[in-house]
């Protein structure tokens, strides 16, 4: 039985033509995979960006609508409060509530309390609600303390057995004294607050949710999660950030464990967080189907075109047999050049280029040993660390000075000592190295290197591509390495000393004011709340006068340690001079600031020093304030906190006074 010789050579891959033909088929398949892979990656990025933009847009709209809903309810209650004034007669109050029956379109019920938190009137009247004591409830404490409108944490209604919140405003007399509150009970199911969320369409599995800043779920498609105390929202880092006041978007785990696109917006009047979620597999479902269709179309087209392409290439590449044979003869020394007689101009150009490259190679071989000897002698004698790398990126030589700097032996593999580059610098250094290899640009980088004896060095690396004088071809890179550890350490020390107090190690006035300016800028841009504490030491002068400045310095150091220990890791503590201290609490509410201030007051009162058998101690007069919309600069905030500290001293020292960014005056919180 006879065989086709062309088919036999193709099957056995014994000829250059058959290998090229097989390589073409593999290249087409690889190209298909690369194109479809790139289409998938680009498409996935576009799909994610498009969906993320949609989520961000929807989250902002929802947050704005809920904010308007809350603001309208606040305004309605404030109008009712203005109508009631400071009237305490329950019959008159009940009459006014009935006259404003239209408010029930926004509220399920209206309640009015006296200054002690007892409910004195409600509408519609519900048995047992009048006389209810709310003095120990969180919303009454917030209203009495801040004199600002407030939305309570969710609770279960007694009559309806449904989740509700209380939207309330304080009642103030003409002197600004707190005389009670007016509250509107809002059902989370039927009030219309979250009507917008039920109309959102995010595919078949996307959804929206609302939670309080404390992590209690107000709205969720899964009704069992609403007001459920066992739901831990902080397990998701993005939700945890949103609960702290962050607004933005990203990719993270959902409550059911799947990965999804997420976007968050803040409802500031109520301290609520709006979140929109779309499982990432659902977002990519249309793209996946499209890529599958493209894949089948490509396979069918390739199967139809492949036989024709193979036949054409077989006819065109016939002269390659002779070229392959002559190149092989040049390689073994039977020929000194290629002499290819063909009418195909492309192959003539290949033969001409090969002959030219072969001539250059012979010239390079003749001078290579001489150049290598010269380069070795120069680099070995250099006191600077130097290295040589080929154009594949592999370092082929390091001089003795560089080996001594790095503390390694010349026979250590490159992969081994590369792991000693600091992990934070390794990726960037490798990326820049590859970029220099591709573009021919100089490589300049400063990075950290961990020697085998665990000493960390700062290295300055400058490498340059070496080009041949003929043809402009690259041979590789030659680099110089300098040990700049001492210089970097000196620069870091100077930066630290410029903003820190040398006695206590805390921030000095300059460093503290810079961080205060940054926090105030964040507040103006995003309304991120922050608090400021200013205090000096009561009874500190006798310590200096009787024990000397050394004893006073010891007391300052101990107090600095206690204050730094009591505040949060994200807070900034400063000694502004003498016995004056400041604490900046970024992303901190007034309630948190009050608790921290009281903790500082108690802890510092326990600090003491002893001199000649006598024990000395100090107390704190702390002024507390927060950023306000009326503040035009940080000097206004500092002045208010300083005035609060002065008021604390006027109250007998060892106390905490809060001054709000309003005209309400100081409020003494602890003593």
From TrEMBL:
InterPro entries linked to this entry: dCache_1 (IPR033479), DGC-Regulatory_Protein (IPR052163), GGDEF_dom (IPR000160), Nucleotide_cyclase (IPR029787), PAC (IPR001610), PAS (IPR000014), PAS-assoc_C (IPR000700), PAS-like_dom_sf (IPR035965)
Residue intervals of the GGDEF domain: 528-661
Protein origin, superkingdom: Bacteria
Domain PAC: 443-496
Record membrane topology: Multi-pass membrane protein
Residue ranges crossing the lipid bilayer per the database entry: 294-313
Localization, UniProt: Cell membrane
One Pfam family of this chain: PAS_3
Keyword match Cytoplasm: no
Keywords: Cell membrane, Membrane, Transmembrane, Transmembrane helix
Domain PAS: residue ranges: 371-440
NCBIfam families, sorted: GGDEF, sensory_box
Protein name: Diguanylate cyclase
